[in-house]
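Batch 3, record 17
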Amino acid sequence: MLQLVLFNLFNGLIIGAFYVLVSLGLSMILNLSNVINFAHGNFLALGGYLAYVLIPYIGFWPSLLVAPLLTGVVGYLIEITMISRIYGRDPIYSLLLTFGLAFMLQDATRYIWGVNGLPLTVPDNLSAPLSQTYFFLNAYRLFLVGIVIVAVLGLFAFLRYSRMGMRIRAGILDLDTVSALGINVRRLRSLNFAFGIFLAGLAGVLAGGQIGLNPNMGDSLLLPSFVAIIVGGMGSLVGTLLGGLTIGVAAALTAVVWPAASDVVVYVIMAIVLLVRPRGFLGEEGMQ
Amino acid sequence: MLEVSNVTKTFGSLVAVREVSLTVERGELRAIIGPNGAGKTTFFNLISGFFPPTKGRIIFDGQDVTNLPVPGRVKRGMARTFQITEVFPELPVRENVRIAVEVGAGYALRPRLSATERSGVNRAIDELLERTRITAKAHRLVGELAHGDQRIAEIAMALALKPRLLLLDEPTAGMGEQETFEIAGLIRRLHREENYSIVLVEHDMRLVFHLADRITVLAEGALLADGTPSDIAANPDVQAAYLGHAA
Amino acid sequence: MSGLLKSPPGDRHRLPVLALVWMILLLCPFWIPYIGGYTSLGTRILVLGLAAMSLNFLIGFTGIVSFGHAAYFGLGVYGCGLILRYVTGSTPLGLVAGMLLGGLAGTAVGALITKRRGIYFAMVTIAFQQIFYFIAYKWNGLTGGFDGLRGFTRANLDLGFTTINIINNDYAFYYFVLFVFAIAVGIMGLVLRSPFGRTLLAIRENERRARFLGINIERHIWLAFTLSAFFISIAGGLYALLNNFADPSSLYTDLSGELVIMCVLGGIRVFWGPLLGAALYVVLQDYISSHTVNWMFFVGLIFVVVVMFFPRGLLGMLRRRSEA
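Prediction for the assembled complex:
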């Protein structure tokens, strides 16, 4: 039993780590651009497929960085050509736009790489199991958690210490003032969008190594990531981080006792949080 | 009528309003003035219930309304306008006023009105449009009207709530000469002929000294002076902090 | 023709517009074959049109965007299907059950989310939709899970003195759906023209002004959300009757998005806009999916093109042109 609980707990951490990567990107975009990016899961898949293409040429390790970067570039291009044009309009338009983009990206992925799943090969030394008793502790999964931790620390350091990161944080708090200070808000939003997409791409490569590639691979991560943002509190990236881990672990532990409910429990947590603490774990009072 | 005692409002570490008190008598027109950043609008928002004060009490008509949300205050007889006109831009003037009349009459949740009720509403709308002299533009969309007319429509909506205290936040902000003149005329009529109690925040000094019974001066969030227009004009502190400032 | 297409609060052209719309709908089975359609396509458009109009009650007339309204539509589908499958073979009871299931769920969810606005409101509605989706998807024993709920059919209408055959007679079923549609849309129109309906317009136009008129914004948004959920779950019930089938895709995000695009395609500020939007969308989607396996790409493209180039929708553009 203990082993089962540990197994699920660790699974929860893994899933939670994916939720964290996806929801941090979504959250950055939501906070600065006021856009819900429905296509986020499709960018994730794109990241995985780009790595699939790159690995034969440049190997796994460089691909781990290059594929997400390329995904970020694609995101950047889509932002400047389409999404940036609907800033300031009724939220209904940004919702529909990214919703349509999600359809297009998903179908394009399917068209290019096929409906059936593809494997993403990871280096041998990463796929070996580390322990007989705790068979679930293979190197890849530890590596995955490690990468996510590095990425998250990197992100927070970037937001705290770099000039651009500070501008992004200031923009989240008060875009008008940032704009009045002569900072190019439009460019800031585009780059911020690209950062969010980079994180999605990274999640895609990691997920591909874990479960393989398919065109819908991001779908199951997208909606729980919304929940992570809501539960963590709108406007707070640390909140999003906590939210992602919480729901990942909660879903995994529920799977021990009642597997059928493990998907629903995420949303039940959300309902409870909305009822008891509507602004979420770390949400700002005014942010709704 | 209105008794504000020692209200303070802080936002984080910023003290926007510090220990301000004020008493408005029935039928009085009170102007609140002060240099930019004096906390006038914050103070005004405290009175109208936009947000609750951090400290202090607000008594309206003998009842404590300090933490009462907006709908409750409106029900007790407070109505306000905004510095940046707040109307329903895509609806005609008449529909703007109709909504205000219906809500004011307590019909907000009604699925339908009886014929008598409906004609009562229509009479009230006609009368309000007449009183504010905007009947001629009743069928225009408010969003298409000139600034001054939008403001008048907004005042008509406030009047539709049959308030006992009218709160006007910079009623002539951004208006031209002619518009200011018209709005000042409307405020004077409401005050002198219809006996409304009015509190207004205003930048236009001519208007303030012309209309107000009493003037409250705020500076840096605190009460600087309170008195009749001639008291205030003669007050050296006010001249130093405000009039000198403006000159 | 200024105002010809205007929504409530109406004007002098309201009656001609109503007459025109109802003529088109009443005669639909007779003209639709001439443009290459068939009666049950008309029925489908009517059902989805009612769903989109119910959603637009919120989007267009209260100014609040729900992006998770398929939840209440889908609960209407399942409510109706489950009653027919397990309890009684009565079509009207099925509809009532669907309406109650979806409507009450909407009432409960609405109570939790009225403090949120804009994009955040949309996000929470999306998330709540997932609860109902997973319940339908996972509760295999009751709902048939992923494969959907089968084994029920709509029953003929027993009026006491006669029985109307809606099982095999497409015409009869169309008129039955039109009857229900008329009642729902009629009530919707009356609500929008009532003092309560005007408070919703007030919230859409300017929430701050509405609040300072003394309107209890949260309560009114909650009521609007609730009414909208009841209306859309009636459409859901009709959808179950139309297909004799209920499956989880009827409460999935994709359908929510499609309902929103129907509203925008027709014009959200126009009462009948979403009905036209539904017709356009259904026809376009049918056409695309019969011509290419990559229909998803092109459906996505419709979304993008509408948002970028036709944000006012068809009727919205006509109305604007006629006013210019």
